[in-house]
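Final report, closing paragraph on structural work. Over the funding period we assembled a curated collection of sequence-structure pairs, and we close with a single example.
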Amino acid sequence: MYRCLQHEMPSPLESVSRKTGVLTYDMKLLTPMVGGGVESWKPDLFCPVRIQSIKGILRFWWRTMQNIQRYDVLIANENTLWGCSRNASRVAINVEIKARPEIVKLERDERDRVQYGDLHPYVLFPLQGQKGMDRFTLIRSMKFRLVIRCPESEWETVDKCMTLWVLFGGLGARTRRGCGSLYCSKVMEEFQSGEDVWEFLEGFTRKGSPDFASSHYPSLSNCRFAWSEIDVQGEADPIGIWSDFLDKYYRFRQGPGVGRDTKDNKRPGRTRWPEADTIRDITGIYGNHVPMHPARPWFPRGAYGLPIETEFRNDSTDPVDIKFRLRPPKDLGDRWPSPVILKIIKLSSSSRFLKACLILNHRLPDEIVLFQDNSVLHTLKPDEMPLAYSGKTMPSNAPLSSGQSPYDALIDKLGLQEGR
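Its predicted structure, as stored:
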């Protein structure tokens, strides 16, 4: 019989007078898990659910629940509950894998391209660049039990962290685009509709909290949540529902006929977003594409996360494989994680799902730069920043309307209704 158990001992520093209790959650995967092991992009097939990873995930969701603007106070409170180098955590976790995980291996074809099968390539495209690997192992399904020991005074807080993880998080990589999504019947008992989820999220907004897109860390206070509800006839296929949702996102970002023009041979044509023409203006590299986008100079897709890579590929006149990278400056780190979380959520009813978009309240970096190789090419001016959409004119067939927020456009093109 296959069994994998991981135990974490309760802290010996915990006061014996503090009453502790146990929270138990039976979990299962809804969508495939990518990576999650010690080595990037590779799962640990014997013990795929790592306690250290769960602790990090729950810490993240704990932080989104807070409304503390002083960073030192936020970190002190976080370390008190979850632990740090100076004090042990009040939370101890045990994991038991209940059955052997179902494994799927993605192969490469004769042209060295990853074959994704029924999985959407847009969310898994980073695998294409892992040239040193001839196949990729994903965990397609898995069941496990999570046992959490903590002081009873922290039960409600820890249970809310678990609820947020089940609703909007996952296991492994690419969870903000729905990989490794989870279901727990105990958690989902109170959620029968998208309105129930929105009501839960509204409870985290406090008086005086930062307006949307202005919090210094990812926050649920004044976040945005939109969804569409579907009732499945017959046996539910979570991966199919997820893939259909991702396809709308792909078409919005760069799909022919929505994010890009379509050439006569039905291949993707020129982008309908302004970034490429903005880069052409900055660099003077035109090729056979003279800058013409009316909204330039502007980089709206940075609102969905950084870095963003733009590549001018070889054609009859364009330079060969010139790559540009939009990101925060080096002293702020390479990434600004996307505040946009795209998920499918299985409701308490066995046949009902949500296609959901959560946009956390998180301000953009104060400075965003365009790199070519390792050299700074351009620092974005205020009217070029992703959320500087006021007054921008877009073509009639573009993914965004003139003067429209990138977040409003995303919700609209995904066909979702937003909680108000």
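Confidence is low (pLDDT under 50) at residues 12-18. DSSP finds eight helices and 18 strands in the chain. We thank the funder for supporting this effort.
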